[in-house]
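User: What would this chain look like folded?
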Amino acid sequence: MKRLTVLILSVLMVCLMAGCGNASGKLSDGNKVLFQVGKNKVTKNDFYKVMRDYDAGDFIIKQAAKAVVNAEMETTDQIKADAKKQFDETIAEYDDLKTALEKLGYESEEELMEDVIDSVKADLLIDKYIEENWDNLVSKYAPLKIRVLTLTQADNGDDFKATAANALADLKAGETFDAVAGKYMDEKSDAYKQTRESLYVTTSSGYDNVVKDYLKEVTTPGLSEVLTNSAGTVAYVVQVTNNNISQLKDEFTAHLKGLSTISEEMYSFYLKKHNFTLYDIDLYNIIKQNYQSYLVQD
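Assistant: Here's the prediction, encoded as structure tokens.
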């Protein structure tokens, strides 16, 4: 499996090094026969075409990501130690090393260790990306700690707005948010979960637009006035408890690392930094269709 990967990569790199331009890539030795079955011969050109047409860019993106990781992260003794720990944990899931290598598709212990090291480095690169882009990420996600009180017409009757106003008055008078929430809301409701202090970012789901619009303008901790949704059926009271990014750094960093999109954002950033360029028009179109965010060339 690894030999096949190396062969595909070497074929790809010959094309890229040749500078294929705005046309389909051609290999200088593309007619070289790689193997033959009966009268059927498979050349390097055949191999490249299959990789290009059926891989849908996945291999290219993985190799580009690997190159980025190794360009940005040195293999330190600590990384080697962390990788060895992960390696041992992986092998322990199987009967022995030989079985593990066979099941995982590796020909040698060294090949598996190389991939584990790359994985450790990729995780650390996320930390580096967050640190290098901290101000931009804070601006994009605008982290806050908030609590939200929700009063609905369905649960609180037609005077739900007046009830919300009473709840706000209680909070301003010094009652705790927990006490007010318990007084006016059903503790078994889904909305009650939002009365607990939690990290809010611009991409957080489950919040009405009127709440999000209010939070866009917040500059200091405090209470909102009664906010009403566009349908006029739900009232909210929002409390911002903390907007100090220094105090929120650890929690916000953990949130960023948990995002499904953070790796994509990271690789896009470093691919652009390292001038990731596709010269083959067919490969370019494949990446554009399936991996738009990774296409960083003009």
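The radius of gyration is 27 Å. If you want, I can go into more detail on any region.
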